[in-house]
Amino acid sequence: MITIRRELGKDAAAREALLDLGYGAVRFSKVSHRLREGRLPAAGLAFVACDHGRLIGTVRLWDVAAGDSRPALLLGPLTVHPNHRHRGVGSALIRHALAAAAKLGHRAVMLVGDAAYYERFGFTTERTNSLWLPGRYDAHRFLALELSPGALAGASGLVRATGRQLPVHARALRDKASHDKPGRTAPSLPQAA
Question: CA distances (Å), 39 to each of 34, 60, 146, 162, in order?
Fold first, then answer.
């Protein structure tokens, strides 16, 4: 039976292994990683899907500012174990995360992803045309969903990270773990201003 629950500290190793399987080291070079690097997910908005206790999917949301310091969330990364794909696990994770974000009073969610997949949840490029990310990305993949109508109306400028910083000791442990894995490097990317 598949269940979705909040991510726990004990899930970190399984989550990272799943993300490595889903994205490989390329995930550290993505523009959205720049907004997550050195940060904690938004409070109460990191979720995992489990099948009989085994972690098979993950999604997290991150605090960002949309241009003129308008509060928003960044969704991602989302991944599901290859053996469980095409069974609705990713959709269930997204729906769960969006409902939790709305319940907590968040008004908008952005992401970089496949428009054909994310449009079923209401994501479009309509509200991102005047926003930009800190690095290279395909504009047609930069999407947003307003959880409250008008939340991003008139927003323009750079999207920047605003979330809680990882404690220094946690960053050191994360950096050590990423450099201890053979063939895996976590490039040092500049933080968004």
Answer: 10, 12, 23, 9
pLDDT at 175: 56
- The Cα 85–Cα 136 span in angstroms is 28
Cα 97 to Cα 140, 169, 171, 176, distances in angstroms: 23, 28, 25, 30
Amino acid letter for position 55: L
Residue 11's identity, in one-letter code, is: D
Q: Is the per-residue pLDDT at 123 higher than 50?
A: yes
Please state, in angstroms and rounded to a whole number, the distance separating the CA atoms of residues 46 and 93: 10
Read off the pLDDT of residues 57-100 as tens digits, 9 standing for 90 and up.
999 999 999 998 899 999 999 999 999 999 999 999 999 999 99
CA distance 164 to 149: 26
| Of 152, 135, 148, 164, residue with least CA distance to 69 | 152
Could you give the percent of the chain with pLDDT greater than 70?
87
Q: Which two tokens stand for residue 93?
A: 């994770």
Closest CA to 110 of 164, 70, 51: 70
What SS3 state is found at 111?
Answer: strand
